[in-house]
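Lab notebook, bench 4. We co-purified these components, and the gel suggests they stay together. Before we commit to crystallization screens, I want a quick structural picture of the whole thing.
Request: model the full complex, all chains together.
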Amino acid sequence: MSLIRPIFLIAGNTMTGILRGVVLNVLLVLAGLLIIAATASGTFEATEMRRMLVDSGLAIITVLGAMIAILTGFTLIPREMETRTIYPIMSKPIYRWQFVLGKFFGASGVNAITVGLLSILFFLVYYFKKHEFDLRLLAAVLMIMAMLTVLSALIIFLSTFMSWIGTIIVSAVIWFLGNYSQFLYDLSGFQSQNPVSEKMIAVIHQILPNFQAMDMRFVIVQQEIGFGEPQVFLIPLGYAVIFMAIVLVLATLIFNYREL
Amino acid sequence: MRMRDRSAIVLIIVAIALFAINWPINNYISNSQTWHSRQQKKKNASGQYELISWRPPRNEGETFFNSIFRGGGGTPAILAMFGGQRYMIANIMWNYADILFHQSGDNKEKLYEMSSALEATVTLNPSFTEAWSVHGWHLAWNLNADTPNRILKTKYLKDGENVYIRAIMANPDKPRPYFDLAWLYLSRTFQYDKAMFYLEKMINDFEPLKPEDKKTKIEFNPLDFDKKWDPRVVGNRLAYVYKKQGIAERNWDYIQRAIDMYRKCKEVDPTDDAAQQNMETLQKNLHNEAWMDEEVKKEEHMREIYGVSTLKKYLEDMKPLGAMERKDDGSR
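Here is the predicted assembly.
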């Protein structure tokens, strides 16, 4: 049996399990309605229209996408252990790292479907409003996908040693702080009079995922940066991939020692 | 050593190696202006962070945290920070400020609430130069004119000036806040020396808009206004500042500089009739002492009407322009 095949088998089963669930479908419908309601509003002046359209559309995809990632991801490993369905899987010639990666790719697949569906809806609304399509929006959506994939990797990591409730709380806190750490880092460099707190914030900033760096709304709305400057998109993407790899390595490390 | 322990050691080494790679990448992103950190952060010789090598004067003791909590902008700011949605909340507050402005016709209190919404906007998105511009204008023009209280009038004018100074500190790489501050000095406080300093700094440090920047035949790309200055507007404004400073000091050199600047405006835009007319008036009256006497009288009269310092006091207080430059050690 190849090393890759079991990963995709587990990923496929994971995706099917989540897609059959009620949570994902309810949240998807809610997110779709929110996108239509927020971006289809005609109360803004013409100059503000694009700003609000891009900002609110991408914000809803990000926030609801994160909510879906957390609410569908926290049970992936703990439930397998609680319902003891992990035993027949582990009795087969499957390494634990393959199981962890399979769960991660399954969760990432769900993220891709979620973001894909919401983005299509958002692009349609944008096109009907502006009668044009900005290709950079596609890059922004891909970066949201990267953010949510990092979040999914973190959820998988947390669920290898935490209970499901702990995973929900800690992953939500990491999501919020990850979005806030850049702001905190800026403030510490700008105003801090205390070198100890400044260093602490710098370390926390390194440990937490810098979700803000992957958020392309700022770049698209505030600055005229296009595909001529690919580093704007590629550097945060590289950062996300390496961060994800670190988290998955740690998840595998812990799961290897977990008593089943 | 068991197989599991060996693989654990390998995994730990891999994790540390990856972390060591990602650390400088994250630092690069965090300190780069391209993404989110608008401030140019670098440490000076004494280990303190300097925003930029030059910065405008600011109030002592003013911190970024003050500005978060000042004017009621704190709650939305904090909520948005934790949700990671500060740009979106900034835009909502920006639109809310616009709604309040239109409601202020029926209810004057809305005009005062508007400054809180604008404060929240610029706190959440410090690179939003249009919001900074409107915020300062609202304080130094609208609220300053609306309030009957003399003390509050002075306060709002000072607040407006501080808003523009903060805008420059948050956006040292954009010309617009410099223009706004110069405009305030020119038309609200009548400090022509300062207006001249900021306009000249803007012209020297930033690129002008060029005809090829036009998005359509008549319109410039709006985003270019954030990065470049429009020579048609800025040139006329600086020429006017030279003229006013020349009148204040009774100095014909400044009047000559105003004429030269109007001539440049005319070269940039041959349809600029205002520049042509102003240039002709100044040329006609160059070295005409009677005209100068009359202009000085007008200036004194205008200062009396607006309640700003007399011409004599202005000239006494006027510092050499270079004195506003901050030295490397932070002193001025």
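Chain B is about 65% helix and 0% strand. Worth comparing against the SEC data before the next meeting. Chain B touches chain A through 47 residues (CB under 8 Å).
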